[in-house]
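User: Predict the complex with zinc ion.
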Amino acid sequence: MEALIKELVETDGPSGEETAVRELIEKRIAGSVDRTFTDSLGNLFALREGPAPLLLFSAHMDEIGVIVTHIDERGFLRIAPVGGVRPHLLLGQRLRFKEGLIGTVYHEKIKDLKELDWSKLYLDIGAADGEGAAERVRIGDMACLHQPFVNLGGRYLAKAMDDRIGCAVLVEAARRLPPSLPQGVCFLFSVQEEVGLRGAATAAYRLEPDYGFAVDVTSVGDTPEAPLMAVSLGQGPAIKIKDRSIICHPRVRELMIETAEKEAIPYQLEVLEYGGTDAGAIHLSRGGVPSGAVSIPCRYVHAPSEMVDAGDVAHAVALIEKLAARNWPLPEG
Ligand code: CO
Ligand code: ZN
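Assistant: Here is the predicted structure with zinc ion placed in the model:
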């Protein structure tokens, strides 16, 4: 599974430009499902047909990045965030454009780091002047962090763990599903989560699932002077109770906990005080979809290097596999 994670995190897919990620996932999952299809916004559906109810598991393909807003006469680019990017985390970082062009981020003269905002940052692609820069980039081009995948001995470090690790977990879970399932299961690889859960909203509307699950990263409270949070790396996947986008359906939550306990899969309970996931969009689709989320604990979410634990990842795969294979009642109402 490490090879799958590495190729997924090292592929670039800022929000709205997920094509390369989608093509890779489609190749990797095609043999494990009955059919795959893509919608007009770029969401990828991978379907195991079956009787009702229909379960939807969603991981988003997009990652945070930047977008070019201005090119000056000396060839320096100004940039704006795509998704939740904090400017100080970009200092000195290399960014990569779709065509492989690389630049480095630096800042104008400032007295104090507190003055650092997007207007003080620029991206240097090594162009001699504005014309040279304009030959290589255009306003609106997007770039992603340029960081290699590393295995630190049981813990993985990479950019875009949010949420390629969720994509990897779904691909791996799909491979392990038994030949016959008690219900239909759709694995969704959604677009534009980082800019407001957009792909999951249209995908859920089209699919009309009976249950929804987001599979995404969550923050942890186990680093030096971290904000207090009862989730740690290495203690198992987290079953979400709540974040800013959803209060997970109590019945779904109970069945998730019941499944983890029955299968002896370690888990944690997650209350995330900020941020959201695709479940936020899915549960509000049409007449409402009872939803929950499996979260992979992750340090340094939205930083250039995000860290997850290999054991948590393996247990997340097992939990998804067991959730998909267990019997789900038809929801009430
Ligand atoms: Co994110
Ligand atoms: Zn995410």
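The domain at 65-145 is CATH 2.40.30.40 (Elongation Factor Tu (Ef-tu); domain 3).
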